[in-house]
Amino acid sequence: MRIGELAERAGTTTRTLRYYESIGLLPARRTGNGYRAYDEDDLRLVRQIRTLQDFGFGLEETRPFVECLRSGHPDGDSCPASLEVYRRKLAELDDCIARLSDVRRQVGAQLARAEQARAALEAAATVPGGAPEPRCELTPYDPSYDPSASDVAAETTPRG
Length: 160
Description:
Blueprint (H helix, E strand, L loop, with lengths): L2 H8 L3 H9 L6 E2 L5 E2 L2 H15 L4 H12 L9 H47 L20 H10 L4
Antiparallel strand pairs: 1-2
Helix pairs in contact: 3-4
GO molecular function, one term: DNA-binding transcription factor activity
InterPro entries: DNA-bd_dom_put_sf, MerR-type_HTH_dom, MerR_fam
Keywords: DNA-binding, Transcription, Transcription regulation
């Protein structure tokens, strides 16, 4: 199959396939007239790369899986190097989950403190003699207001 068909069947673009070729992940055989030629094994290889990328693996992390497939294994998961990449990725994910859990706990604690402070303000505002709720008074905007004109008016007004 040609590159366009491989891209379509693998759910990617020809540009991506050319990039995979340039970094050595996807070998390209050439026909007599110079076209790239691919087979079902190449399709399986590209699908393996895409699946791993969907899981968050970087392209370099897919290399052991690609090499496993190229060496004749029925899937890229069965080689020791692939298993090691899975183990490292799981450890990385566990670390990320732990950090996110810690951040979640901190945000929850901050929310609880903020809610307590808000409740205390509301309680103080409703108790006689308690602290009054802060108020803001807004003066409507008057586009005809000219501050320099009011200064002139104050200076020219006779004082009595």
